[in-house]
């Protein structure tokens, strides 16, 4: 029986001759589906989803009751607004899904070339099947996950950029399956690989050519869907994962609708009000039947029942009475609140996109709002998860300075760019001293040789090596696995040493005298994050074999002579504290015996089928010893504008900043220092593969038993650093009893640190972290900010996702809730807009509940005076128009324009953000205050008028007022009180506020004047009144 | 060209879009709040005093005539089987009852505010639409059609239960009864009389009611409510209009007549009076009471202590609050200024 956790793929669908029967395995097709609906299921599915909202469902029930039961108000009063809300939402969601369909089609219908029985066939991307051999040309993206079989490059490699996957814009080298046949048509082979899983950096596969030939493959052979082929004319690959099973699709999480914490509060309040509503209805129903049981009350002679009423079953009557009361009091939870909240959010979001402070002249764009539902959530953020590359930094490396043999060389940024390194008019030295010319040149040669940079073939232009002409740096493109390397090569170029490229196995370097030197490249000892250094072994023309090594100070210093270290350490540490990325450069002259030994060791290790990595590592370590230190470099990854200020403001506002990056730890750490996320005084706690290794060596105990140490007092800031591999140990550890304990322990440590840095993260791990924090105790509000496709998963996972309109495509922007051009805009977005929107919507919600409570409470109390007969206190027009016309505009205007503290003050005092943290204005305390206020005022309105009506002759002509007048008086007092209450809460009176507040009251008076006809005096007016009465019904 | 592009994408730099509209930001300082409270308090006290005095000056005379007590003259009429019973209510005034005097009848424990009762009428019928004379709306049930399927006009419980006690007031002058003239005009709402209720434009009015029957409780059809005055007959009969305007509370009074004419224009002089009551309206079956009320009015309407007291209480509270605030302010604020 076959194990389920692996799949077998037949290259080109050709089975091995030896295997007896081929059962073609079934894999999913290569279609990407991100849309939610189809034409057929749109209506039922959308309606179902809409009515899952507690409010919509409630209004539907009320509407149905009104249709079925004889109720005091018409079904139109609740049916029409509900229909309106549902329709508008459905149209909006339908349109959004149509856009998704379009985007999907674009990807799925893209034409690709597939090799079929020796012919090249054009096919739509969605028709690719697992096992197909696919051709991809330069600058095309891979249509599915492929295993590289053949490349047009001689060295059996191809270059790939995964910018849209993990955000790393550099070129990565991938290798073909070693020693395969050149003829793909006759190649029959099987690939045994694991079932699809989302980890981008993990891939284990066995490639077998029909039993006789096995090769194990790793991630370096796998081309991921979504990555782009670069600098390689074309490649052939075999599809291994397709469609929704590709690593990209598995890393992509569906965009589910986000609900803000405020909406959760609204739902909680809604439940309270539902309880109030139901209990009101229950009380009235009970009292009705108690009251009727008294003699003479049930059916007085003046109010006889109809035959039908007499025949109805008592319990049925009770039930319909209950429902009628529900309908009568249902205005306590008005549809209009949802409409107003939606309008506030929708209109309010315009202020974000209109804000000219968010406008970036460089890209000619301002902020973009994709989801207006989350405006207020911006004011509630507790955790900020930020990407590093492109978000905190500009992803633009620049060589700043170097240090040779203890002397500092700072490149003077003058007009004389290329010969600025001459001894005579050389760069400013701190001590006005120079290292020897020999050392300088050795250092620069090392920079030119010790790297894996490739020169992109200049297009059109002659190479111009021999003519002594100097090309500007930007004419020559460099391709490298890390932008630091390019920066170093470019840095060396500034000082006169120019890397010209590879010619077969020779590296060519042009020195300061414009002579071309050639070096034979013997070995590259690749960079890896554990060793944290890389080396090359080259042979000079004169026959010397040299090893150049560059790497992190911590990994170089132990391998060089100590007296050299002290001179350079000072510089390195100073550079590191300035936030530069530092590398140390060392070299070693290899004797021929030493070289031979190393050479054989490396060759053997490379051919090893088992433990290849470990064997290579051992040889590397053996070779890279006893070197001499030449110098150190400092490269700056420019921070985004005002990155440090922004981060400081966020921390000042009480937010915790976590940096989640796919980048290396050193780089990320230096960025954190530069952004002032780590301070000088911050004590760093490191939990990485490296520390695990060292701990494991020192004592073989659990990695988590940190050596006992004294934790300093509360004032100490802690920073926590963890890498992806370690994190997966923590998160996905075997399901033993300790694993959940680790997770909570980890979370606890992280939550007590001011800053957490997670490096080497896969996109999904970023999302995992966000999810973990999101679901932790107290469910804090999280915000993710990023610019690349690798940030999409965390942008989608967090409560609020912010996209930066950066260089790395638009995926982050498309999936974000808000997109801003620059990181610095985050400050105003959160501290300014977020704070204001939160205060606005919190007030809006509380005020709405309050005004409807004191609206409906008198109607409830009136039941005690009308024999519990569901007699509405207010006229039907008042009932419907109260929330729509009379009291809606002032609160809407207030919730759009209110600035209880003006924007500048909010931004200058980040600590003000803490005032509204943790949903402060929508907790039960404020809710209770508003509810009690509503109850108090409702009681006052009703009983005030009740005592006034102890003598209903309230006019000087002795005429008496009836029940509608009673309601109208209560209603008038109500409208004025709630409007004036709002006026008293308004701290920012613009002309619009004046207009809507006084205008609403004036409109109410004007309306009542005609509707009630209370104060009609002239004949002309009587005619108007008459027509009005006839058209609107005849209540009065 | 480039600048054009810039203006196309750049957000408008207006005060509104940038949320920089000029705004008044009220600051509630002690210097405003304390004098403000004092002023509001004083104004309220002023209004309260005026209302209270106005209310104190109103004279009210209330007499129950349900006839529950045996001593009451109306006791004999309280048996519902007794038709066309008259009883009288004697009272004397020691002072002049200043005019104009308004005469009300009052009912208690009577729920005119019940919904089923209130909706049991046909507005179209009452606005004179003849179609609804033949087929009244079903809300009028059980007073929609009579047993012979004749439509009832005016239909519904509300109209059917119209108050039908009659009153005549005599002053006893030297042992002889002198009729105090009642004015039945202007007791109904102007809008009811002029707009909402209309007789069908058929003359004589009686013809419009062909094929219909009167409400079962009524002793005479609608077109005979006041045969002497066509402008007070049918649906625009003022007694009918007063009844049709429903009371808000179960204990209510309705205006019956005004005493504005002849010797009594300036009020009811001191002396003995006798009120002759045509006792028709049954209330004891549901535990109700009937009363008559004589009252004069002021600019604020009938006697009502509540409003004046409420104003006085709120006004005094404001003043008290302002003193408290002043004390707090003096105690905690002034030293800091030094």
UniProtKB/TrEMBL annotation, chain A:
P-type ATPase A domain sequence ranges: 111-191
GO cellular component term, pick one: early endosome
Membrane-related topology note: Multi-pass membrane protein
Lineage: Eukaryota, Metazoa, Chordata, Craniata, Vertebrata
SUPFAM superfamilies, per the entry: Calcium ATPase, transduction domain A (SSF81653), Calcium ATPase, transmembrane domain M (SSF81665), HAD-like (SSF56784), Metal cation-transporting ATPase, ATP-binding domain N (SSF81660)
Entries under PROSITE patterns matching the protein: ATPASE_E1_E2
Protein name, per record: Phospholipid-transporting ATPase
Organism of origin: Hucho hucho (huchen)
Record keywords, A-Z: ATP-binding, Cell membrane, Endoplasmic reticulum, Endosome, Lipid transport, Magnesium, Membrane, Metal-binding, Nucleotide-binding, Phosphoprotein, Translocase, Transmembrane, Transmembrane helix, Transport
Any Gene Ontology biological process: phospholipid translocation
Reactions the enzyme catalyzes: a 1,2-diacyl-sn-glycero-3-phosphoethanolamine(out) + ATP + H2O = a 1,2-diacyl-sn-glycero-3-phosphoethanolamine(in) + ADP + phosphate + H(+); a 1,2-diacyl-sn-glycero-3-phospho-L-serine(out) + ATP + H2O = a 1,2-diacyl-sn-glycero-3-phospho-L-serine(in) + ADP + phosphate + H(+); ATP + H2O + phospholipidSide 1 = ADP + phosphate + phospholipidSide 2
Sequence positions that bind ATP: 387-389, 485, 527, 550, 581, 661-663, 760, 766, 790-791
TrEMBL record, chain B:
GO cellular component: endoplasmic reticulum; Golgi apparatus; plasma membrane
Subcellular location: Membrane
Keywords, ordered alphabetically: Membrane, Transmembrane, Transmembrane helix
One Pfam family from the record: CDC50
One of the protein's GO biological processes: phospholipid translocation
Record-stated family: Belongs to the CDC50/LEM3 family.
InterPro entries found in the cross-reference section: CDC50/LEM3_fam
Protein's recorded name: Cell cycle control protein
Lineage: Eukaryota, Metazoa, Chordata, Craniata, Vertebrata
Segments passing through the bilayer: 32-54, 309-330
């Amino acid at each position: 029986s076959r194990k389920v956790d692996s799949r077998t793929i037949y290259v080109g669908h050709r089975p091995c001759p030896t295997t007896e029967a081929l059962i073609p395995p079934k894999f999913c097709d290569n279609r990407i589906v991100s849309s939610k609906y189809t034409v057929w299921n749109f209506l039922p599915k959308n309606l179902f989803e809409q009515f899952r909202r507690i409010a919509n469902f409630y209004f539907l029930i009320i509407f149905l009751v009104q249709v079925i039961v004889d109720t005091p108000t018409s079904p139109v009063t609740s049916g029409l607004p509900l229909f309106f809300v549902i329709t508008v939402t459905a149209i909006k969601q339908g349109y959004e899904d149509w856009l998704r369909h379009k985007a999907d089609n674009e990807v799925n219908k893209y034409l690709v070339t597939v090799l079929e029985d020796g012919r090249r066939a054009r096919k739509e991307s969605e028709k690719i099947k697992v096992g197909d051999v696919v051709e991809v040309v330069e600058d095309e993206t891979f249509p599915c996950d492929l295993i590289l079989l053949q490349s047009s490059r001689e060295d059996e490699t191809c270059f790939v950029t995964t910018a849209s996957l993990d955000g790393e814009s550099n070129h990565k080298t991938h290798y073909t399956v070693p020693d395969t046949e050149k003829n793909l048509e006759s190649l029959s082979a099987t690939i045994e690989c694991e079932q699809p899983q989302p980890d981008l950096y993990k891939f284990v596969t066995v490639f077998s050519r029909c039993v006789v030939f096995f090769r194990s493959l790793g991630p370096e052979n796998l081309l991921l869907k979504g990555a782009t082929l670069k600098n390689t004319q074309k490649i052939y690959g075999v599809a291994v994962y397709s469609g929704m099973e590709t690593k990209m699709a598995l890393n992509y999480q569906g965009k589910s609708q986000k609900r803000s914490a405020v909406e959760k509060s609204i739902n909680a309040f809604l439940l309270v009000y539902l309880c109030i509503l139901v209990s009101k209805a229950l009380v009235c129903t009970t009292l009705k039947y108690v009251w009727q049981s008294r003699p003479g009350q049930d059916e007085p002679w003046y109010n006889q029942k109809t035959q039908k009423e007499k025949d109805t079953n008592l319990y049925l009557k009770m039930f319909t009475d209950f429902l009628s009361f529900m309908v009568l009091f249902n205005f306590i939870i008005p549809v209009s609140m949802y409409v107003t909240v939606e309008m506030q959010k929708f209109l309010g979001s315009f202020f974000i996109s209109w804000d000219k402070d968010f406008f970036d002249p460089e890209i000619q764009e301002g902020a973009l709002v994709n989801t207006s539902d989350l405006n207020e959530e911006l004011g509630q953020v507790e955790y900020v998860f930020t990407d590093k590359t492109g978000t905190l930094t500009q992803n633009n490396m620049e060589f700043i300075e170097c240090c040779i043999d203890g002397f500092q060389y700072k490149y003077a940024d003058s007009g004389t760019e290329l010969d600025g390194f001459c001894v005579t008019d050389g760069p400013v030295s701190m001590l006005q001293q120079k290292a020897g010319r020999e050392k300088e040149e050795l250092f620069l040669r090392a920079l030119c040789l010790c790297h894996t940079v490739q020169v992109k073939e200049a297009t059109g232009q002659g190479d111009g090596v021999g003519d002594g002409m100097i090309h500007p740096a930007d004419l020559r493109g460099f391709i490298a696995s890390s932008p630091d390397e390019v920066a170093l090569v470019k840095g060396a170029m500034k000082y006169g040493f120019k890397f010209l490229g590879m010619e077969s196995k020779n590296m060519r370097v042009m020195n300061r005298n414009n002579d071309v030197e050639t070096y034979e490249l013997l070995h590259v000892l690749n960079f890896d994050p554990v060793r944290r250094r890389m080396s090359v072994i080259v042979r000079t023309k004169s026959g010397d074999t040299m090893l150049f090594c560059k790497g992190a100070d911590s990994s170089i210093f132990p391998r060089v002579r100590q007296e050299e270290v002290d001179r350079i350490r000072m510089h390195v540490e100073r550079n590191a504290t300035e936030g530069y990325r530092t590398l140390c450069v060392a070299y070693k002259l290899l004797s021929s015996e030493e070289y031979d030994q190393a050479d054989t060791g490396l060759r053997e290790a490379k051919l090893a089928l088992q433990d290849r990595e470990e064997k290579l590592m051992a040889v590397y370590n053996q070779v890279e010893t006893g070197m001499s230190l030449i110098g150190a470099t400092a490269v700056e990854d420019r921070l985004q504008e005002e990155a440090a200020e922004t981060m400081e403001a966020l921390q000042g506002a009480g937010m915790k900043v976590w940096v989640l990056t796919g980048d290396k730890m050193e780089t990320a750490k230096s960025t954190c220092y530069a952004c002032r996320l780590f301070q000088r005084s911050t004590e760093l706690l490191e939990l990485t593969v490296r520390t695990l290794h060292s701990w494991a060596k020192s004592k073989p105990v659990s990695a988590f038993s940190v050596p006992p140490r004294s934790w300093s007092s509360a004032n100490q800031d802690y920073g926590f650093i963890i890498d992806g591999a370690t994190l997966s140990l923590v998160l996905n550890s075997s399901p033993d009893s300790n694993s959940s304990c680790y997770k909570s322990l980890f979370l606890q440590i992280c939550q007590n640190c001011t800053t957490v840095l997670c490096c080497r993260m896969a996109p999904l791990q970023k999302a995992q972290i966000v999810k973990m924090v999101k679901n932790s105790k107290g469910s804090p509000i999280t915000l993710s900010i990023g610019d690349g496709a690798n940030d999409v998963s965390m942008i989608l996972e967090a409560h609020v996702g912010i996209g930066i309109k950066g260089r790395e495509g638009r995926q982050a922007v498309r999936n974000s809730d808000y997109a801003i051009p620059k990181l610095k805009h985050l400050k105003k977005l959160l501290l300014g807009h977020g704070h204001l929107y939160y205060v606005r919507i919190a007030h809006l919600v509380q005020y709405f509940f309050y005004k409807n409570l004191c609206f409906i409470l008198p109607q409830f109390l009136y039941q005690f005076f009308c024999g519990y007969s569901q007699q509405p206190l207010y006229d039907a027009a008042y009932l419907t128009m109260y929330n729509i016309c009379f009291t809606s505009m002032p609160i809407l205007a207030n919730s759009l324009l209110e600035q209880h503290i003006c924007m500048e003050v909010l931004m200058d005092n980040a600590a003000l953000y803490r005032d509204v943290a943790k949903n402060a204005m929508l907790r039960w305390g404020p809710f209770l205050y508003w509810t009690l206020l509503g109850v108090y005022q409702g009681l006052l309105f009703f009983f005030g008028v009740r005592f006034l009506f102890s003598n209903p002759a309230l006019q000087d002509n002795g005429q008496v007022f009836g029940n509608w007048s009673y309601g109208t008086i209560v209603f008038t007092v109500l409208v004025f009180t709630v409007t004036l209450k709002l006026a008293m809460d308004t701290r920012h009176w613009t002309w619009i506020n004046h207009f809507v507040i006084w205008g609403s009251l004036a409109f109410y008076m004007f309306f009542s004047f005609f509707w009630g006809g209370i104060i009609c005096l002239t004949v002309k007016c009587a005619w108007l009144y008459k027509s009005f009465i006839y058209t609107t019904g005849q209540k009065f | 060209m480039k600048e054009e592009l810039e203006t196309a994408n750049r957000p408008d730099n207006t005060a509104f879009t940038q949320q920089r509209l000029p705004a008044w930001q009220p600051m509630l300082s002690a210097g405003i709040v304390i004098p403000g409270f004092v002023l509001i308090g004083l104004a309220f006290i002023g209004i309260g005093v005026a209302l209270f005095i106005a209310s104190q000056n109103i004279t009210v005379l209330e007499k129950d005539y349900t006839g529950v007590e045996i001593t009451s003259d109306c006791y004999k009429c309280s048996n519902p089987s007794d038709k066309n019973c008259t009883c009288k209510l004697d009272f004397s005034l020691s002072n002049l009852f200043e005019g104009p005097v308004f005469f009300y009848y009052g009912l208690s424990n009577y729920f005119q505010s019940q919904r089923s009762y209130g909706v049991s009428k046909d507005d179209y019928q009452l606005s004179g639409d003849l179609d609804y004379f033949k087929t009244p709306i079903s809300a009028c049930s059980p007073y929609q059609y009579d047993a012979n399927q004749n439509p009832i006009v005016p239909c519904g419980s509300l109209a059917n239960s119209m108050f039908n006690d009659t009153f005549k007031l005599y002053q006893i002058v030297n042992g002889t009864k002198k009729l105090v003239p009642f004015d039945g005009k202007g007791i109904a709402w102007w809008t009811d009389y002029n707009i909402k209720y209309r007789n069908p434009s058929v003359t004589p009015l009686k013809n419009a009611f062909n094929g219909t029957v009167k409400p079962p409780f009524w002793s005479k059809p609608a077109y005979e409510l006041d045969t002497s005055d066509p402008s007070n007959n049918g649906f625009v009969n003022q007694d009918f209009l007063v009844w049709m305007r429903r009371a808000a509370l179960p204990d209510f009074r309705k205006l019956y007549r005004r005493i504005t004419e002849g010797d009594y224009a300036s009020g009811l002089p001191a002396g003995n009076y006798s009120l002759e009551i045509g006792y028709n309206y049954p209330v004891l079956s549901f535990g109700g009471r009937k009363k008559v009320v004589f009252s004069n009015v002021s600019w604020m309407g009938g006697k009502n202590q509540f409003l004046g007291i409420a104003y006085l209480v709120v006004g005094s509270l404001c003043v008290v609050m302002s003193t408290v605030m002043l004390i707090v302010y003096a105690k905690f604020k002034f030293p800091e200024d030094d």
